[in-house]
Predict the 3D structure of the following.
Amino acid sequence: MGNKVTAIIVAAGSGKRMNSDTKKQFMELNGKPLLYYSIKAFEESEADETVLVVPEEDIEYVKSDIVTAYGFRKVKAVTPGGLTRTKSVEHGLLLALDAGHVLIHDGARPLISPYLINKVIEEVQKNRAVLVAVPAKETIYSTEDGMVSASLRRDRLCIAQTPQAFDTALIKEAYNLAEKSAVKGPATDDVTFVYNYLGVKAKVVEGDYKNIKVTTPEDLEVAKALLTEYESN
């Protein structure tokens, strides 16, 4: 595999916590679908191509009303997601055929910047796995049965974001091992797979506190405010 960089944008969820009939990745954010902003950031970055993973019933809408309508040229494919995020990422990885590196991004993070994407691409050329994260600002406790069990050291904690980046062969091997494993432990991101199944630690790249994940209606309002501020500067 060469130096080609494929970005996989995972946007196949239903967004139930948004309490809306419209899936959150297609909800309007300052006049455009939320998913538009992630695609645009990768379009303006040094990534070579993008694969979109969306609900199967929305593929034609994404192709016509987002990719074609806004003239995105780096979108290589729009593929259906699976029942879980893990399965959706697997579907995206199947289309990263000749990429040396892949970046995996949550489509619900519309405020990712081309600058941060390029930083991640630069680091993954030197490290096999890269985690974007920001330092924890607040005190964090672990709890048990509704009671505090320990206070965690804030200077050792960070909050994970996306994109996460990998040597393509590495992340594919991790997913293959996970598929064969009888132990189906929780894994909410891809760095977890690489560490749990291959013991490879990820290089941390400092992220951006504005790179929020839109999960609730309140998050959407915050994203609108941040986007408006960004566009006015």
User: Anything to note?
Assistant: The chain has seven helices and eleven strands. The CA atoms of residues 142 and 150 lie 5 Å apart. The chain has a mean pLDDT of 92.
